[in-house]
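User: I'm curious whether this sequence folds into something compact or stays loose and floppy. Could you predict its structure so I can see for myself?
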Amino acid sequence: MYKMFLVFSLFLVTIICCQSNVVESYNYEKDTPVWLKVKIDSISTSDNNYYFGTEVYRYKWNDNFLFEFHIPLSSCMLCELYYYNGSKTNFPNDKTVQKYLNNRTDKVHVWKLPEQ
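Assistant: Here's the prediction. I'll summarize afterward.
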């Protein structure tokens, strides 16, 4: 009886712990702000090869969602990083950049420019 109780208790603890780590899937239509959809549409229809391979990721940092553009042909890291409301981030110094890179969580792939 004791072993059964122990196994059942471990099962419940596992379920409870795992539920707190469940991340909802990203729904582009519902979860993407309008300003970002407009920017993505602009990139998608651009003839500029600069955006080749571009991807957008959403991260959580300091209780905010940030959208990070990864542009392989750009030499500037984190130049296209926006808060959920569309305002561009402006990290005051390298220490803040490192805090962002080390503490961002909940990485979600939002979009990738289709290969043409």
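Summary: The chain has four helices and four strands. The mean pLDDT is 84.
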